[in-house]
């Protein structure tokens, strides 16, 4: 599995917010990671719709985690942003190729996906959040 840049930015945004005790803004995240404000704004929108971030507009507004870091599953965030995580289309559907009725590869890939999903769902944002000092040194 290779994750998209959008998922990378979403996870970085959550990690950044996990180091904060107060609201941040999109430009803070973008500056810290050297990425475009527009890209961060897009993932913030997705994360807010998914219930992971609170976004408040206007003076005194900003973004913050909607849940404690311990309750945010990395696997669930990846699923939110990526959608279909199947290694091949046949794992999620039947009748996608001429050998589907006897193919053993489908079962192998389905098991690999299950193990991967189980592992990623067991990792929380709290497990991957850097310290505030580490993040500041990376700037």
TrEMBL record:
Q: List, alphabetically, the InterPro entries matched.
A: TR_Rrf2-type_CS, Tscrpt_reg_Rrf2, WH-like_DNA-bd_sf, WH_DNA-bd_sf
GO CC list: cytosol
Question: GO terms for molecular function, please?
Answer: DNA binding; DNA-binding transcription factor activity
* Pfam families reported in the protein's UniProt record: Rrf2
Entry keyword set: DNA-binding
The name under which this protein is listed is HTH-type transcriptional repressor NsrR
